[in-house]
Design goal:
Helices cover 33% and strands 24% of the residues. With 436 residues, it is α/β, with parallel strands linked by helices. The chain is globular.
């Protein structure tokens, strides 16, 4: 463990040589989370928000028309499509500036696009990353096992990986039975403290393999597991915690903004990153606040991106608040996929996605599962299972109790549900548009 301590000290020594900017950002994040009321948080963030809005109306052609604003509510709601179409008029800093860094979104919404960030924004994102990782047990110097789709642009050199004590596990190439066996053997022999950060689909693959070989719980000194990029349903959480003997939390983040929220150990709600963002939940169809506790669109204002300002930016995801009364600090009660990643019942009402996630826990023999809403009343269930499935009627009855007794449910057996180009796997696909 002495090498981990050396990594820790070297990390902060290098930061001090560069002026200690990261430590100052991290301390500012910590100060926000020490506050115990929402009004205190808003008071602390007000100067930063004002600087963002003033800079935007002064230097961004897109926002020039809002120079007489009174509050954030006066600004329009944007989204990926609007940002992509107006990137040149949105940008504050010329593209030729050395302070600009281009960040590409994976395009999981079907709209791949690029935004620009300043070096300050990247620094702030690193501070957010350190705070939220540390809050669930990770310390700089611990080994980080990172499971994702490792495109060439994300990969680090072997020297950097060794210095940072990280290991890259590709969700497609490194999670077959042979590779999983080798991976688990190595981390059990290596007694240093570890954190796993990875796609839910990657964790599911590992757990499915461990189920298949009837493995007992592993002894590999995992301190915490942070699930990212996909909804973490109960069956995957429970199995992962069982096999690795470590808490599992879910993180909500995206490429263009960074970490927006994360669960803490023993808390199923999501702590929102009020230190770096202002978050709204807006009505599904109108740019007005959703009713308290109601599912709505997650809309965020990024305090620290003064390159491509993302003000009242509709992330495309849905969620609901809790803990919003009496000046308490709001959290996310739920975070779900996009509007096209949730189901409607046969009456046209939204169905809480937890119905699907919780339903899966009733059928642990399923290796992979996907629900496709084909039309108002037609649904296809794709099932991947390595033995005969004898509970077709049971699974249909369960879902009909939520979708409607007149739901037309078809079950298709498949060998594999393919990953998206981002390396993620969609649990729900909605091909039905209730507005048309």
């Amino acid at each position: 463990m002495i090498f981990n301590k050396l990594r820790f000290n070297a990390f902060w020594f290098l930061d001090s040589l560069k002026g200690g900017h990261l430590k100052r950002e991290l301390n500012d994040v910590k100060q926000t989370f020490k506050l115990d009321s929402f009004s205190q948080i808003q008071k602390k963030s007000q100067p930063v928000l004002k600087n963002l809005l003033d800079t935007a109306v002064e230097k961004s052609k897109f926002y020039n028309a809002y120079s007489g604003y009174n509050s954030l509510d006066d600004f329009p709601v944007t989204n990926k499509l609007i940002v992509k179409k107006n990137i040149d008029t949105l940008n504050i800093i010329p593209k030729t500036s050395p302070d600009l860094i281009v960040v590409s979104s994976s395009g999981s919404t079907g709209i791949p696009f690029q935004v620009y960030k300043t070096k300050r924004k990247l620094l702030r994102s690193r501070a957010d990353l350190l705070y939220f990782a540390n809050s669930v047990g990770y310390n700089i110097g611990d080994q980080l096992l990172f499971i994702r789709l490792w495109l060439k642009k994300y990969k680090k050199s072997s020297i950097v990986l060794a210095l940072q004590n990280q290991r890259e596990i590709d969700v497609e190439e490194d999670l077959n039975d042979k590779s999983i066996t080798e991976f688990l053997s190595k981390i059990q022999k290596d007694k240093q403290p570890k954190t796993i950060l990875g796609y839910v689909s990657g964790l599911q693959k590992i757990c499915t393999f461990l189920d298949k070989i009837k493995s007992p719980p592993l002894q590999c000194n995992i301190k915490t597991i942070i699930a990212t990029s996909e909804n973490l349903y109960d069956s995957v959480r429970e199995k992962t915690e069982y096999y690795f003997n470590a808490p599992v939390v879910s993180r909500y983040s995206n490429e263009e903004n960074g970490i927006v929220a994360q669960q803490m150990v023993n808390d199923t709600s999501f702590t929102i990153n009020w230190a770096s963002f202002y978050v709204e939940i807006l009505d599904l169809n109108e740019d007005k606040p959703a009713k308290p506790g109601e599912l709505g669109r997650i809309v965020i204002t990024d305090f620290f991106n003064l390159a491509t300002p993302l003000i009242r930016y509709d992330t495309g995801d849905l969620g609901s608040f809790c803990n919003y009364e009496n000046d308490s600090i709001p959290k996310f009660k739920t975070i779900t996929g996009r509007k096209r990643d949730i189901l409607y019942n046969t009456k046209g009402d939204l169905v809480n996605p937890s119905v699907v996630f919780n339903g899966l826990t009733k059928f642990p023999q399923l290796i992979q599962f996907q629900v496709i809403q084909e039309s108002k009343k037609a649904y296809t269930f794709k099932i991947n299972i390595d033995s005969e499935f004898t509970k077709e009627k049971e699974i249909i009855d369960y879902f009909k109790s939520y979708l409607g007794e007149d739901a037309d449910i078809t079950i298709k057996y498949i060998d594999e549900i393919p990953l998206l180009s981002s390396g993620k796997r969609r649990l729900i696909i909605n091909l039905y548009d209730p507005d048309n």
